[in-house]
Request: fold
Amino acid sequence: MDVFGVGRRRSGGQTGRAAARCLQERTPRGIRMPVQMKFAALIVCLAQPSYAQDDVIVPFPAVRFVEEAPDQPQRLGPLWGVRSEGAAGTYLKVPAGFEAPLHSHTADYRAIVVKGTWSHWVPGGGEARGEPLPVGSYWTQTADEPHKDACISAGECIILLINDNPYLTVLEQ
Reply:
């Protein structure tokens, strides 16, 4: 099980191939290293957590959606990491017709529409409304820039949010 109690994982940390690649990157070309130095470099490589966890499988029905804020319709489905603490991937699910108030985030993020048609725009940049973003569409958003989002399809919308740094939502006043 992963940290959220869903999916399965066969191994954590560096795999043999990833450790070998790490070791190769740390071995200067054309220089012969004593076995002890290679062994020390290998230990360093094995001790590093890998960015992508190996063999994590999370069927969509197993994703546990929780409320983002009390009395709000949006739901979050964590896939990896904890977005308020660092690198993470999180589904955001909202009902049809939902429009988020003007808000910003404490970290840059990348997003992909998984279900429905989304709209994303930056009113401060002169946009009155964003263009329709169907399934498969992608956008990025810089930290601390006020923007708006809306689910403009007849059914619910789900987007995948990916952040590398601690990520919180801040409502603009």
The radius of gyration is 20 Å. The beta strands are 66-67, 75-80, 88-94, 103-105, 109-115, 118-121, 138-141, 148-151, 157-163, 169-171. The first strand starts at residue 66 and ends at 67.
